[in-house]
Amino acid sequence: MSVPETVDRALLTASVVVIVVAGAALLARIWRGPSMLDRAISLDVCAALIIAGLGAKSAFARDSFYFPIMLVLAFLGFTGSVGIARFIAVRDRPPRHGTNGDGPGGSEGTPR
After folding, report:
1. What's the predicted TM-score (pTM) here?
2. What is the mean pLDDT of each run of 10 residues along the chain (112 residues)?
3. 3-class SS of residue 93
4. CA 68 – CA 112 distance, rounded (Å)
5. Residues 26, 45 contacting (CB under 8 angstroms)
């Protein structure tokens, strides 16, 4: 093995170790929470770690077979994150004044 191949192998091994350690910390964050938003962000990071793991495997094997799979996972992770963010934003939105009878506009929502 030449020196560049040895350096390449060492860097790929270090990247896999970092991905595994980040995955362990990620599982701890998903388990502990404390909020639903923390868990949602952790699942988004989980998709990124899976993509990084597939990239490392592809680099080890010197094979481009996993690139389309990585692209699809990135798209699904993005759309899932946007969906969860919209759901949490709608759920946590404060009620509008004047539409439920407790605001200055009464029950119809029109000013008096």
Report:
1. 0.71
2. 89 93 90 81 89 92 92 91 81 68 55 56
3. coil
4. 60
5. yes
